[in-house]
Structure formats: structure tokens, C-alpha cells
Records
---
Amino acid sequence: MVSLTDRLDSSNDRSDIGKQAESIFAVMPSELMALIERINCSESDKITCLIAYACMGLALEVAEKMGIKKLSSFLDGRAMLFALLFRIPGLIDDGIMDSDGEYSSKYIKVL
């Protein structure tokens, strides 16, 4: 398991998801490619397949460009919760739920 830098220094606000995502998408492909090349050029085991977090589809694109088998991608509950949290304002605006978290019976049926 490997962690790659987002190249944001300590003066950057990491709570700014937009800035962090922009940096990751700009930096991650080249960083991952360099890491894979460094490992594959060494005397150690070679990278022959890649398992990537589903939100990091760029990793699978890098694997494809480098001729590495893309084994899988995965999601966990935290990613879905993260996506839901960003969608809550839209759900409120669309009338699907109110600001107290109650769902409209128009959209949700309880059996």
C-alpha cells in the first residue's frame, strides 16, 4: 500500500476539498507513473497488477497506459457517505428532505 503526495504544502487549507482534488488530479498520474517505473526498474518484485480505490480512476488509467493489468477498484461506505454529505444541500433544494433530515413522503415510501 502506497501513499502519494498531493504537493500541497502546510500553508494550504486541506479542508478546501476543491483545491485538494484539483491538486490530486494534476499530480497523481505522474507521481504514480514515476513510482511504478522506480519499482519496476529495481531488483525487487515488479508491479504486475493494480487495485485502486474507485474514486481514483486516474490510477487505473495510468495502469492501462503502462500495460499493467487493472485488477479491481473498490468503494467503501465512507466514500458513499462523503458523496451523500455533499449532495444534502441539493436534496433539500429539490424538496426530497428538509433541513432537519426528514424525508418527504412524496419521494420515500416506508413499508
Note: Helices lie at 17-41, 57-65, 77-93.
---
Amino acid sequence: MRLYLAVAVLMLAFVAYTEAQEETIEQRFAVFQDQMAEMGKNLAEKAKTTFEQFQTSDLAVKSQNWFREQYESLKAKMGEIGQ
């Protein structure tokens, strides 16, 4: 009888220990929230870096200069017409 009682107590202790080791739903959501926040930060940093690289790229600079020249040319023509 003692052996059965000892085995039962050990089984209860083992079950209590394993249940204590499992994450609760709250802990899982907290970990998920942290992972999503980290992913959002990484994505924002990558987007910022990509945008900065594009702004300084040769294509962007040439396009910006071309539009500026066209605007100045149009402004000069409108000034001539107005006089």
C-alpha cells in the first residue's frame, strides 16, 4: 500500500512540475507581442535604409535635377509670355 501511495504522490508532483513549466496563454501572447514589435522595428529600419539609399541613388538625383530644370524652363517661358 505504501508503494502505491508513494507512486501516486510522485506522479502528482511530476504533473504539478510539468504544468508549472508550460507557458500560459498570457505568456505566449506576451512573447508574440514582443516578436511582432521586434519585427516591426526591423521592418521600419529596413524601409528607412532603403528609402535613404534610393534618395541618394543616381536615378533619383538625375530625376530630381531633370524635374527642377523642366520647372525652371517652364517658369521662364511663363515669365516671357506674361511680359
Note: The radius of gyration is 34 Å.
---
Amino acid sequence: MADMQERKIKDAQMRAQINQKLVETGERERLKELLRTRLVECGWRDQLKQYCKEVVKQKGLEHITVDDLVSEITPKGRALVPDNVKKELLQRIRTFLAQQSN
């Protein structure tokens, strides 16, 4: 059990270090822009926009908060991201990390 806890701590520390490096080099912003572009190109943004409209219509504008809407659409939004977009971003991050370790 302690090993699992240590692993979680190490993973969190590693993610924080990677994120810091991405931010420091400006790569995080470049990756975010790439993601935005790819999501628009594949129609993800339009799909999610339509889903938001459906949720608001279903629940009623007076009965839903922005936080409620975000909670409702986040799982679907993540699920709708195409695998090829996820793979491209992951590959870019791996390439970045490989370049940083040289």
C-alpha cells in the first residue's frame, strides 16, 4: 500500500516537472494552440457546442449554472476528442521530452 502511495507522489512530481518545463519553454502554449486547431478541424468544437445547447434546452436556462454545464459536458467533451488528435499531442510531448533530455 505504501508503494502505491509513493508511486502516486512520484507520478505527481514528474507531471509537475514536465508541466513546468513545457511552460518555461513556451511549448505548452504551442501544444494548446495545436489542440485548438485540430479540434476545430475535426468538428469537435461544433459537436460540443450543439451538445451544450441540448443540455441547456433539456434542463432549462433558468435551472442550470455554468458550473453545472461544465460538469455535464466535460466527460462527453473528453470522449469526443479523436484518437488521432490525442496520439499527435502525445507524440509531440514525447518528442519534446526526448529533446530536453539531450
Note: The two ends are 35 Å apart (CA to CA).
---
Amino acid sequence: MAAAAEGLAAYRAVLRAARRTFAGDRLMLQESAVEIRRRFEDNRALAPGSDEASRALSDAREAAHFITHMIVQAQRAPSGSFVVKPESVHAGATLEVPSEEILSKLK
């Protein structure tokens, strides 16, 4: 029972992180919820207390931390450019802004 509660807590933590990070972006909220659910469903059959289950829970906690602290949702300004407004939870995180050269390679 404790393993189920731990799994549920990890699931809720990742969903909370996604809701907070992608607030106002309906598409990202929906898609992230679907992906989070899929990942947890993929691991549903893992034996409680197994190394794989422990690793999956650790990955979920890491994902919640990463989403909360490393992702900043950009918003389009009236001028057409994008504005990134990091919050206090992002303090100390490093941000690599992609150059035009990197962006052109992605197209």
C-alpha cells in the first residue's frame, strides 16, 4: 500500500509541476497530462519495491523538479517577440538561449 501511495504522490507532483509551468497554455497542459499519464501507465505493472519501480519513482521526482525549475513558458508580446519571465524557483538555473544558427538547423 505504501508503494501505491508513493506512486500516486509522484504522479500528482509531476501533474502539479506541469500545471504550474504551463498555466494558460491549454495545448501544453493537455499534452503534458497525456504524456505523464502514459509514462505512469507504462510502469503500472512494476513490482513494488523493485529496482525498476524505485528508478521509475526517482525519475518522476526528477521530472517534477526539472519541469518546475528548468522550464520557463515564453509568452508572445504585442510586438510579436517572445518574453521569458523566470520566477524565483528558477534562480540558479542555467539557461542557454539558442542562437539563430542553432534554430536554423532545427528547421
Note: The chain has a mean pLDDT of 86.
